[in-house]
Amino acid sequence: MGRLQQAWRRDVGHASAKVRRESSGDLNRVRTSAKELSTQLQASRARNEALEERLDAAERALAAVNETRLKAVEYNVRQLMLASQTNDRQRDLVSQFVSLNPADVCAHVSRAVSSAALDPGPCAHLVIDQLFPPDFYELLVQSLPSPEHFPSRDPIKMNLRPSHFKVVPALTRLAWEFVDRDVTGTIADVALQRLQPFLRRRYEVLLGAAHADAAIALPHRAFGGRLMLRRPGYVQKPHLDPKRSSATVLIYVARPGDPESVGTVLYSLSNPVSPVRTSTYYPEDFGVTCTPVKHVPFRPNTAVVFVNAEGAHGAEIPRESVPEDLLRYAFMHYIGPEVPQLLELVSTLPPPEQQGWLGLAKWEDD
User: Fold this and answer.
1) CA dihedral sign, ordered 62, 63, 68, 73
2) Range among 85-89, 165-169, 174-178, 340-344 rated most confident
3) Fewer CB within 10 Å: C terminus or N terminus of the chain?
4) Residue 131 pLDDT > 90, yes or no?
5) Under a CB-based contact definition with an 8 Å cutoff, are residues 252 and 298 in contact?
6) Containing domain of residue 238, as a range?
7) Closest CA to 300 of 334, 249, 343, 259
8) CB burial class (10 A; 0-12, 13-18, 19+) of residue 272?
C-alpha cells in the first residue's frame, strides 16, 4: 500500500509539473500576445491620430482654398458691377473717343516729342509738355480706372498692363490699349532719333565700342507698357531700369489738384556703372553715391523720356506732405531692342562679358 501511494504521489507530481509547465508556457504566450496586441493598438491609435491630423489639415486647406475662391469671385463681381456702372456713365465719352482720329493724336505726339528740349544730364532726357491734344488728354483722365480694377496685392504700388486687361470699363480699354499699341510706338520712333548719340554711348559702355554700332542698328520697339497707380508711402529709391531698356518713358496723368512734388527725380552717379544683372539695378547697393540733380514736376499732360544710363531715377510720395487719399497715375513703358537679336549680338562677346546679360531671355514675351 505504501508503494502504491508513493507511485501515485510521484505520478501526480509529474502530472502537476507538466500542467504547471504547460500553463506557464500558455501564460507566457498570452502575455506575449497581449504585449503584441497592445503594441498594435498603440500603432493603430497613432495611425488614427495621424490620419485625423491629415484630415484636419486637408479640411483647413480646403476651407482656405474655398475662401480664396470666394474672395476672387466677390472681387470679380465687384469689378463687373463697377465697370457696368462706369460704362453707363461714360457712354458719351466712349462715343467722343471713337470719333477721334488716331492719326491726328499720333501726329501731335510726334511733334511734341520732336520739339521737346534735350537735356544731356545727369542722363540724357526729354521733358515733353502737352504730349497729347488737350481733348484727348481729358479723355485719358476720364478713362483712369478706379483702384478696384488693379491687382490688389500691394495697395501702395499697383500696376495694370493693357495687354493683360480683364474686367475694365470700355473707355479704359479703348484709351489705354490705343496708348499702349500706337502712342508708345510713335514716341519710340522720334525719341530713338533724338537720343541716338547717347544710346550709342550707352552701348559702348555695356557692349564695347566694337559692338556699339551693331547694337544701335538692332530693331528697337516700345515694350512693357503699364498703367501705374501709386499712393502715399510709396518710395522708389534711385535705380536704373532693366538692362534691355535703352530708354524709359514716363507719361504723367495728373489731375486737377495733384501735387507737382510727386514727380520723378533724376540722380547723378559718383562713378560710372555697368549693371551686373539684367533686372532693375540699384547703384547705392553697390556703394555708388546718387545725388539728386533734377526734379521733373508731376504736371498734367507731361512726359519724360530718359536714357537708361549714366544717371539714375527715383520717386517718393511722402505721407506727411500729400493728401492721404492721393492717387498718382502714370503710364510707363520701355524702349529697347528685340530680345532674339540682342541675344544673338551678346553671344558674340567673350564669355566673361556675356555673364552680365544672363536672364535677358525672360523679357522676350514683353
Assistant:
1) positive
2) 174-178
3) N
4) yes
5) yes
6) 92-363
7) 259
8) exposed
Contact predicate 262/315, CB 8 Å: yes
Query: Rounded CA gap, 127 and 118, in Å?
Result: 8
pTM, full prediction:
0.80
Closest by CA position to 130, among listed 138, 122, 121, 118 = 138
Same domain, 294 and 160: yes
Predicted confidence (pLDDT) per residue in 245-286, tens digit: 999 999 999 999 999 999 999 999 999 988 878 889 999 999
CA–CA dist 149, 153 (Å, integer): 12
- Indicate whether 366 pLDDT > 60: no
Nearest to 312 by CA among 330, 289, 335: 289
- Residue 33 is placed in which grid cell? 500576445
Q: What is the spatial distance between Cα 125 and Cα 119, in angstroms, rounded to a whole number?
A: 5
Q: Which of 67, 89, 111 is the last residue of a domain?
A: 89
Average pLDDT, the chain: 88
Cα dihedral 165, 148, 171, 323, rounded to 10, equals: -130
